[in-house]
Each structure stands twice: as C-alpha cells, then as structure tokens.
Amino acid sequence: MTPPPARSGKSGKSLGAIAPALRHVRAVVLDTDGVITDSAKVHAAAWKTAFDAFLRDHPPEDPNQRRPFDTGDDYLRYVDGKSRLDGAAAFLASRGLDLPAETVRDVAADKERLFTERLRGQGIDAYPGTVQLLHALRREAMPLAAASASRHARELLTRADVLHLFDALVDGGEAARLGLPGKPQPDLFLEAVRRLGVPPDRAAVVEDALAGVEAGRRGGFALVIGVDRTAGPGTRDRLLRHGAHIVVRDLGELIEAGAPT
C-alpha cells in the first residue's frame, strides 16, 4: 500500500510532534479499554469472578477444561475487545460448554453487574502516555474518535477527564442501536471514521485487543497500531499476526523526543 502524502497540521508545518507512522494519516480512532483508560484489568477481574463461579457450579465434563479463567491469556483470546455476549459465548465454548443463549446472557449480566460495582467504587484513570499523544494530535487539528464495544465507554472517558479530546464516540450503546456487528468485524471503526468524515484508507486505528487489530485490517485502515500493555510471551507477535502494522507498549512512544506534552 502506498501511503498518502504527509499531512500538515493547523500551522501548515509537518506534524513533527508525532512519530513518522502517524504523519501519513488524516484521522485516528482509538479503542477505549486498555488503550485510553486503564480499565481492561477491571473488566478482566469481573470476567474472572463471573466465569469462575459459573465453572464451579457447572464444571465441564473434561477435567482438563475445568481450569479457572486466566486474566491474561483467556482474556486476550476470548473476551478482550468483544461485546459481552460474544465474549461470554467464546470463553464458555472454549471450555467445551454448549449452553443455551439464555445461560450465556446470565453469565454476561453477572459480569456487567460486577464491573459496574467496581467502576463505581474505584474509578478509572487514563494512561499518561495516551493523554500526551491525544494532546499532541489535538494541537495539530487531527480528528479523533473513540470506539468501544463497551456501553461504559462514555462514562469511562468522562471519569478519566478525556472525553472532551474526541470529536466522535461510538460505544456499545450506539453499536446496538445501529445494529453494528462486533469485532473482529470492522463496522464499529468504520462508523467512527464516517463520523469524522475521513475514509478508512486515510485513517489509523489504535487497539490492544486481537479482535480489534483484526477489525482494523479488515476495514482497510491505512495504519493499525497494536498496544501491548502486558508484554507477555508472544503477545507482540500475536498482535502482528492478527493485523497490527506496528506494536508499541505505550502510546507515549508515538511522540517525538523533545516535543511538547
């Protein structure tokens, strides 16, 4: 793919404050959990409580599939970046459980209750590196959107005091209203760039979830940036295999040294 010409900022100068990879796009769409806000670990903890309780009460026939939910590998493989129902169904199927839709909904609802309780009790912060990059992009008049399968995205961004930095937000509630399929389908991101008025082949997607980077690639985005917060064995390679063009551990890496923050 031939990159579009380097974009100029509002001053008419080249976008020197940001890394070269971002200078060739005209808009950026960021996932929320694990990319903007430090909320992925709260989601993972809520999923673990809900799944482990269900597995204790409904153990799989195969003893090898009775192991508890792992907040690292299982979270990344089966639920990260997906809607609650899709995530619950994917994990339970991975344990060999063929369950009616109503049961899957009950597990997802239990996770929702647990997450809401923890969100209200402890609050959520935005990652400092992400906030620095958002401010750098805003100084150059780069259109920004947040996109998330979570219905809590607006509340998370508001509590983290970063909602005002975005020109558009497409959250789980909007996705349900519009009938958008979940990741790895690209519809959530495509709706976000549509609202920014920029085609996907001139935009970047920033994601930490495997399903999310795959969605970015499927959507034909010019740049898919994977965020590897855990830096665990093979996590970077997994993001690359699923569609990331580049992988960073923190979005502060995308700000040029010496740039104002």
Describe this structure in words.
With 261 residues, this protein is α/β, with parallel strands linked by helices. It folds into two domains: 20-39 and 125-254, 3-Layer(aba) Sandwich (Rossmann fold); 40-122, DNA polymerase, domain 1. It is built from ten helices and six strands. Strands 3-2-1-4-5-6 form a six-stranded parallel beta sheet, with helices on both faces. Strand 2 (144-147), helix 6 (153-159) and strand 3 form a beta-alpha-beta unit. The longest helix has 22 residues, at 101-122. Mean pLDDT is 90; it is low at 1-15.
Quick rundown:
The chain has helices at residues 40-57, 73-79, 84-94, 101-122, 128-139, 153-159, 172-178, 187-196, 210-218, 235-242, and strands at 27-31, 144-147, 168-170, 203-207, 223-227, 246-248. With 261 residues, the chain is an alpha/beta fold. The two termini are 31 Å apart.
Please provide the count of β strands: 6
Order of helices and strands: EHHHHHEHEHHEHEHE
* Assembly of the depicted chains: single chain
In the CATH hierarchy, the architecture of the largest domain is 3-Layer(aba) Sandwich
Radius of gyration: 19 Å
Which features would summarize this protein structure in a list?
2 domains; 6-stranded parallel β-sheet; 43% helix; 10 helices; DNA polymerase, domain 1; 261 residues; globular; single chain; disordered N terminus; 6 strands; alpha/beta; Rossmann fold
How is the secondary structure organized here?
Elements: E1 27-31, H1 40-57, H2 73-79, H3 84-94, H4 101-122, H5 128-139, E2 144-147, H6 153-159, E3 168-170, H7 172-178, H8 187-196, E4 203-207, H9 210-218, E5 223-227, H10 235-242, E6 246-248
Parallel strand pairs: 1-2, 1-4, 2-3, 4-5, 5-6
Helix pairs in contact: 1-4, 2-3, 3-4, 9-10
